[in-house]
Input
Amino acid sequence: MTDRLNWNLIESCVKKIQVDCGIEKEERAFLSFIASEIIGISIEDAHDSITDGALDRGVDLFFYDQYSHTLYLLNTKYTKRFENSEKRFPFSEVDKIKSFISDFIDQNLRKNANVSEDLFERCSYVWQTYTHSEFSIQVYFCSNMLDFDHVKILSMKNEIEKDYVYAYSLCGERIVHDYIRRRKSSINSTIKFYGKQYFERSDGYYRGLIATVRAIDFVNILRDPNDALLINDAIFEDNIRKYLGKKNAVNSSIYETATGDRGVDFWYLNNGITMVCQRFSFNSGIPDPEVELSDIQIVNGGQTSNALFEVFKNDPGKLENIYLIVRICETQNEEIKLKIAEATNNQNKILGRDLRSNDDVQKKIEYLLKNNGITYL
Output
């Protein structure tokens, strides 16, 4: 069954592109949107790459990246009515693309005979520039309707994929998931551990690190890249609570402990920081190792982070002798990241809306409203 929220979000993207770029037909706006998302090109370049029409051989969009020597072929179906979204992507389109690729590889295309003039000219350019040793073809079947069923996805890959040809299907949920993921801020940084006070474990696809760090080193990863005196709020995008300010009793206590005469107590009194990341790496067995972190988010410890940053702005010297515990979890699973965020927050009262603020449905609503000019808080 098609998810109504997914369908509405895709529709909002299409309509926004129509307005912003002056594209009259929704089908072409959808094509431009999908190509821009998949290939990483502008909407304008995507629109210029559309080949949909008579004798298109199932190729609705043709884009050749001469730098990576990759040819992108898109076949799309778009419905303007949600009621029609329950239909599955027609498998007959696979046969069209398969036939085109065969004629393209054999250079057996004839202008205005078995292929349109526009598509023929694009193919001719690729024939003149590519070499088989570097060349690859990526085929995408995309729609706001239901995807092929599992058996037909396997059949599609078996029919099309060979040597340097790869095939993918993107519909509904997958399109929305990738759309949201690409708009999430990716933050990479390094953090230095204190001495050899760290512990590492690994469980299959998940890895973890627990370490002691100096507060002054930790604060460095919080800085806004454009203004060192501002905190980078994007690092808390997956955190389920907002900073409650120093007037909050718990946060006031964090601030006072960090600035008081007994800074040594901070490590013992504070729960520390929990971060998730796509990947971490460091040289083990040495003192004070620097850990490289890829796509990091602070999912617990937002209050501590903000309180320490307040201290840093007012009197950075106070942080020199402050130490805290940092826990780093490496996982590529978004659901696990959300569970970590929910499970590790227990210092302040959490409102129900905070627990839901970074789940999948809320993110979809946020972007749906954003495309319609509405800010979702």
